Amino acid sequence: MSSTDLIHRLSRIIGQLEGLKKNIQSNADHDCLATIQQLKASINGLKKFGETYVKEHMKECVQQNSKSKEDMETMLSDIISGAFSL
Q: What percent of the chain has pLDDT over 70?
């Protein structure tokens, strides 16, 4: 997936979050179910973005930033821990 595709995904998520913000700010007759569905969609979108980003860039990131096998193992462990704590 290209950087452009990742940016497009982020823009879509930002749009969903802005919609949520407007629904909550309006506080007037907003559809609670629609708001919850939009919240779920934005959470799922961010999870998919994170998964895609990690898959696409993990190898390159680790190779560029590690100086030794130990550094590489530490970075991989940190990446995995970070990905599962989202």
A: 92
